[in-house]
Each structure stands twice: as structure tokens, then as C-alpha cells.
UniProtKB/TrEMBL annotation:
<feature type="domain" description="4Fe-4S ferredoxin-type">
    <location>
        <begin position="5"/>
        <end position="34"/>
    </location>
</feature>
<dbReference type="InterPro" id="IPR050572">
    <property type="entry name" value="Fe-S_Ferredoxin"/>
</dbReference>
<dbReference type="InterPro" id="IPR017900">
    <property type="entry name" value="4Fe4S_Fe_S_CS"/>
</dbReference>
<keyword id="KW-0004">4Fe-4S</keyword>
<dbReference type="GO" id="GO:0046872">
    <property type="term" value="F:metal ion binding"/>
</dbReference>
<dbReference type="InterPro" id="IPR017896">
    <property type="entry name" value="4Fe4S_Fe-S-bd"/>
</dbReference>
<feature type="domain" description="4Fe-4S ferredoxin-type">
    <location>
        <begin position="35"/>
        <end position="63"/>
    </location>
</feature>
<keyword id="KW-0175">Coiled coil</keyword>
<dbReference type="GO" id="GO:0051539">
    <property type="term" value="F:4 iron, 4 sulfur cluster binding"/>
</dbReference>
<dbReference type="Pfam" id="PF12838">
    <property type="entry name" value="Fer4_7"/>
</dbReference>
<protein>
    <recommendedName>
        <fullName>4Fe-4S ferredoxin-type domain-containing protein</fullName>
    </recommendedName>
</protein>
<keyword id="KW-0408">Iron</keyword>
<keyword id="KW-0479">Metal-binding</keyword>
<keyword id="KW-0411">Iron-sulfur</keyword>
<feature type="coiled-coil region">
    <location>
        <begin position="66"/>
        <end position="93"/>
    </location>
</feature>
Length: 97
């Protein structure tokens, strides 16, 4: 199984400043729950984010395809949890109205 280079955000170091988002030429990075997230499908590995990150929270990692899929699945689970929370708040707000 071949390995490929990827960039990831160390969530313990990320301060959510958004400099990586501003410097990503293709929009592969978003801020989610005050932390940066890199979409591995969109990232082209230009390393602009790596160079501008003040707390050095962005890291290069070599991953195989299986690990890449696991990381994407984890990101999707976090997104689902976030959307469920938003939906619940919206439903609560509508009940009160």
C-alpha cells in the first residue's frame, strides 16, 4: 500500500486564528468549532498554511489510503454531531416561538 503526504491540524495546538484559511488558495481549510480543519480531498499540498500558522499547528504526515479514509470518516462524524446540535437548537427555538 502506497503512502502519500498529507497536511493535518494538531487540534491541541490550533488557536483558530484563521490565517491558514486566508492563505489557502483553493479553500480546503475551514474553521469548525474554533479550530482549523483541512479537507484532505481538496488539499493540494501547497503548504501555504504550514508556513503561516503562528502556533505551528499544521503538520505533514505520511498516511496510507486506509488511514486517509479513517480521517475523513472522523471529520464526517464531527460534522454530523455539529449539525445535529444546530438542528436541535433550531427546533427548540421554533417551539418557543
Amino acid at each position: 500500500m502506497s503512502k502519500r503526504l498529507m497536511l493535518r491540524v494538531n487540534q491541541n495546538k490550533c488557536v483558530g486564528c484563521g490565517l491558514c484559511v486566508e492563505n489557502c488558495p483553493i479553500g480546503a481549510i475551514t474553521i469548525y468549532l474554533n479550530k482549523a480543519r483541512i479537507d484532505p480531498k481538496r488539499c493540494v499540498g501547497c503548504e501555504n498554511c504550514l508556513r503561516v500558522c503562528p502556533p505551528q499547528a499544521i503538520e505533514k504526515i505520511g498516511v496510507n489510503e486506509k488511514d486517509s479514509i479513517r480521517m475523513e470518516l472522523q471529520n464526517l462524524r464531527q460534522r454530523i454531531d455539529f449539525l445535529k446540535t444546530r438542528l436541535s437548537r433550531y427546533e427548540d427555538m421554533r417551539k418557543k416561538a
